[in-house]
Amino acid sequence: MEYILSLILGLFIGSFINCIVYRVYNKKSFLKGHSICPNCNHELGVLDLIPLFSFFSLKGKCRYCKKKISKEYPIVELFTGLLFFGVAYLLNANFLTQGIFNLEFLNLLFYFFITAYFVMIFVFDLKWFIIPDGLTFSAIVITLIYLFSGTFILNMFTLDELFIRVVTAFVVFLFFFALYFFSEGKAMGFGDVKLVIFLGLLLGFPNILPALFIAFASGAIIGLSMMGLKKRGMKSEIPFGPFLVFGTFVALFFGNYFIQWYLSLM
Ligand SMILES: [Zn+2]
């Protein structure tokens, strides 16, 4: 039951993410005003804003101007829903029996938060080759609050763990800055350099290693196959942020399996 509730929450968060991504990119306030159709500017009603359901009941067209709605919207909604389902499953969410005033629930909320950030960064970077500073910096601040309150108030982490996370963030930042600097911005954008501070804080050492490995490996595979398929006039640039986010998400939950597997090879 908790998993289903998380899935539904994820669908709505996904819908909200679509809205944020659209409004941040178009430099609109994302708290004020109604949602509108980007084509005909008609205000959208409650029935137009139900995740997935609205898209399919309207057969993918705006109710007012009949213009096709991008498939990206339901895809982001479904994907966020499934991720939330996965997070609830992996963290063994049981807030219906245990209540919400405990560390497990706080932890779950934090993971929902960062999952939403992952989706936003993924979509933003994939669509527009940019990761907005506001997104990265607010994610860093939320993670620092989580880590510091988790260490000094809630006793979830030891001082050593906190220290390792902060140092990891700093080292991985320097590493990416060097990559950025010496490749003159060709290997990655400066947005990625800032993003890894957030990812380093989340993962710490050694979990950051499988994350980076997955990011570089999947980036190389996709990059090479895109080059193989490349047609003339096609954009050859691929943003790196989505791969970093993907690697981090996998490492967050399965990083220790990778590390154990690697150590068993030694
Ligand atoms: Zn319309």
From the structure above, extract its key features:
266 residues; mainly alpha; 10 helices; 69% helix; globular; binds zinc ion
Overview of this protein structure:
With 266 residues, the protein is an all-alpha fold. Helices cover 69% and strands 0% of the residues. The protein is built from ten helices and no strands. It binds zinc ion. Zinc ion binds at residues 37, 39-40, 42, 62, 64-65, 67.
Biggest sheet, open or closed, and with what strands and sense? none
Terminal Cα span:
42 Å
The percent range for helix content is: 55-70%
Low-confidence stretches: none
Strand content: under 5%
Shape: globular
Count of helical regions: 10
Secondary structure tally: strands? 0
* Ligand inventory: zinc ion
**Quick check: average pLDDT?**
89
Topology:
Elements: H1 2-25, H2 53-57, H3 72-90, H4 95-98, H5 103-128, H6 133-152, H7 159-182, H8 190-203, H9 208-229, H10 241-265
Helix pairs in contact: 1-3, 1-5, 3-5, 5-6, 5-10, 6-8, 7-8, 8-10, 9-10
Bound molecules: zinc ion.
Zinc ion (ZN) binds at residues 37, 39-40, 42, 62, 64-65, 67.
